[in-house]
Design brief:
Elements (H helix, E strand, L loop, with lengths): L1 E4 L4 H6 L1 H10 L5 E5 L4 H7 L4 E4 L15 E4 L6 H7 L5 E3 L20 H11 L23 E4 L11 H13 L4 E3 L6 H11 L11 H9 L3 E5 L2 H8 L4 E4 L5 H4 L8 E4 L16 H4 L3 H17 L1
Parallel strand pairs: 1-2, 1-4, 2-3, 4-5, 6-7, 6-8, 8-9, 9-10
Helix pairs in contact: 2-5, 6-7, 6-12, 8-9
Amino acid sequence: MILVLRALGVGDLATAAPALRGLRAAFPGETLSLAAPAWLTPLILTIGGIDRIVPAAELEPLDAAPAEPRIAVNLHGSGPESHLRLRALRPGALWAFASRAAGHHDGPGWHDDEHEVRRWCRLVRHYGVACDETDLDLHVPDADVPSGVTIIHPGAKSPARRWPPERFAAVARRLHAAGHQVLVTGSPAEHDLCVRVTELAGLPAHAAPRTGLGELAALVAAARLVICGDTGVAHLATAYRTPSVVLFGPMSPARWGPPAGRPYHRALWHGTTSERGDLPGPVHPALLAVGVDEVLAAAEQVQHAVTAQ
């Protein structure tokens, strides 16, 4: 059995898809298990090739994981905590970035400023696994959702990555006036924020629907346009090649942005250096430097890019 650890969120899982597919192809006769949060199951199924989902939380003991996997692959972080969680299972081999603190020395070195997709492909390549960094597409979940909507997704994991709701509302209001069918989406914990943006934009109450993860993915796949911050929905737009405008700060799009060469994705970034990790808040200055008119202009550009293809 091959056990892979990636106990993080939506964007983290989506950016690991090429590495996971490389592992699937390299070990066709092995059970491929993924240790990840159970709530990500609808999205894990869109990657394909995962035989078993092991419920796991970030940096907690892997109590549900079977002991002694043939190979444990750390697609979670640089260590040492995640390395040690996998080491506790007594794997035949640990594939991970080098970590002196974890006593793991045979992996490649960690590069802080590396794009997340490239990072995990480089790790598995170090151990002889072929990997295609452009293999980012996901299957579309079977869900009954409207097509052709414009998605405004105002939430993000940390306060520093949340563009002000008043600005999202201004964008939503103007797109609605231009004929877009606008929906404001978010996680269950972000529903109040979605309702606030909807009300500020003058949209009807049903414009802030409650959706599960599978429904959200299907909605993005069928959407006309996605406008969001640096969060998981941006990676769903990449996975489904849906035109998107993504607002960055404090992280640079060089770390988490859409792939180069796709004019129908635009990353807006006014920072000079990329911060490490999430910041507690307030909204990062690089994000506050992004204006409403700039977002609307970018939205026009990505839609024209699709029709020009």
